[in-house]
Here is the input.
Amino acid sequence: MSGTELTERAQLLLKNLVEHYIRDGQPVGSRTLSREFSMGLSPASIRNVMADLEDIGLIHSPHTSAGRVPTVKGYRMFIDSLLTIQPLEQGLVSDWMQRLRNSEDSERLLASASHQLSEVTSMAGVVMLPRREQVSLRQVEFLPLSHNRVLVILVVNEKEVQNRIIQTERSYSAAELQQIANYLNQLCAGQELRRVRESLLNELDDTRSHMNQLMADAISMAQQAFSQDEDEDGLLLAGQTNLMSYDEMSNMDKLRKLFDAFNRKRDILQLLDQSLHADGVQIFIGEESGYEVLDDCSVVASPYRVDGKVVGVLGVIGPTRMAYDRVIPIVDVTAQLLGSSLNQLK
Amino acid sequence: MSGTELTERAQLLLKNLVEHYIRDGQPVGSRTLSREFSMGLSPASIRNVMADLEDIGLIHSPHTSAGRVPTVKGYRMFIDSLLTIQPLEQGLVSDWMQRLRNSEDSERLLASASHQLSEVTSMAGVVMLPRREQVSLRQVEFLPLSHNRVLVILVVNEKEVQNRIIQTERSYSAAELQQIANYLNQLCAGQELRRVRESLLNELDDTRSHMNQLMADAISMAQQAFSQDEDEDGLLLAGQTNLMSYDEMSNMDKLRKLFDAFNRKRDILQLLDQSLHADGVQIFIGEESGYEVLDDCSVVASPYRVDGKVVGVLGVIGPTRMAYDRVIPIVDVTAQLLGSSLNQLK
DNA sequence: GTTAGCACTCACTAAGATAGAGTGCTAATA
DNA sequence: TATTAGCACTCTATCTTAGTGAGTGCTAAC
Here is the structure.
């Protein structure tokens, strides 16, 4: 805000204060800092610096006779320019890779990632499912149901299956549907789903005149089937209950609202979406997220890549007062490992 | 326990006490009961009766100078023989039916039921998914994947689709798989899944000698595919967060354990399973359930039927102190409506 | 059998009193 | 000029104390 440059001493002080507060959870006072602070300064001097920090809005006193606590702005500065990233525990990464290797299908892999995140950090883990943009159609099957309905089975991306039900104008025999499927498979198999939609339109124009009725039906069915978007919510959550053990979260009313948000998923997804195009780990501290339910939380998120292209975001949600120095590398590594695992799986 | 018969007065007193406690949530004393009790009795007389009730273990005093609170045994007697079932609110049933009519597939229908339950009661709603015993196979499809894996698509019960991946010894061409599928469809289509398994065994015996290799492969594949059971957890929960608003649930530690149990689902499923063969609404009060996490909760559950056969259980979970007279008919009606809706949908 | 009366228990609340942590300010110091 | 010791002050947290009120059990009278 104000162009005020912080002296090096003030920065160091802030760093120590935040670190101390993250460890203890108690407001930290000048005396404590003076004692545990390498650079020998008296409490009085420290008080002077603290007063400055408070003026700039980096720290704040719950009441006159309490120590200081970092504000959101304080955390922000701490994370952006003061943080010493902790090296990852030996074994965590290999443990990780081992577990990932056990998941055979991508769904489980993603679920496993979110569980890992929550377990290792004792907070809530989130994994936004990979975007389905570049799904390529492998095969289409149609099966007749009663009441002029048709079950459409789409096999995409080698091994994923989507089922849709469409309503037709008349009933079709199994043989007719088989024909239609053959026609469509021939036409579209192997293409990306969004291209399939284009192809269908072209086909419709190209051959409108000399097309038989069945083909026309085929195309209209396909359009119906492909226009339905997946109704999945696209977010995997794990370890929400971990949050119940934090003192900061003991307000039942707020906690309920947070859990409700978890269940709705919408807000969380929207927030994570903001990290889709970020480069590396991104952090939302308290109110920074813009979602009231997350006011007492921080979100540490990172996009993950498949084939070098960002397809999703993962991260953790926990109290603002968390061990960022540990959590950040965990999220970072997890994103990388998940990406490469997904790659191998493909 | 002791063959002690309760006098009619004692029963009435217990009834009033429990009703009052359920309304207010406060221990109720002799004075209160005397005042609000139709039969004119002085506090002193009431105290005598209460002392008796406490001796039998139906009520209990948190401390000397507090009123009385029903024990589990007290609730049990209240529910079993004293409860006056409340008539259902006008409109609730029709509202219900309307909402159910909007769900087209059974999955949504079940989810809707559990949401309904939680909303109407302000507690947690649970719906155990219908048992899949009598699923009948409609069609099988095979698709080759890489690395000698085959994607098996099972269409069952008209409109449900299950996907499985099996590992084969060699790789098969699409044409071969098509042949295998044809053979299996001819052999098994329309049969119930458990019979399919039998059929496969017979077929294997019958024709072992003059069977060609491909058929043998087909059967072994089918066995692999059908032996995998569904990995779904089979329980729909809704409105868990409702429970966070009850004073009785303000102990964060217990609450967390409860939520963890919800996530695990196993215990809840096991408990509900006990109601599968019950006739009508069944109630587990506090420790009666046998699950420690449910010590402060009651579960009101009812089986629901399709075609006259019980296929699942639904119900609500809430604090022991709940309005049983309202909740019981709600669960009851919901079970009936869900059953008939599922019937229609079939 | 019922009830009025009474002594007693116990949780809850309010009101001091005390201790402890931490602050800001001022004046002395290096 | 930057640092620090000293001090008065503020505010929370905790403990004690006393008082209040709801409710009980028992006994004796009705």
About this structure: Chain B touches chain A at residues 104-105, 138-139, 141, 143, 145-146, 149, 151, 153, 155, 158-159, 161, 163, 165, 240-241, 244-245, 250, 252, 255-256, 259-260, 263 (CB under 8 Å).
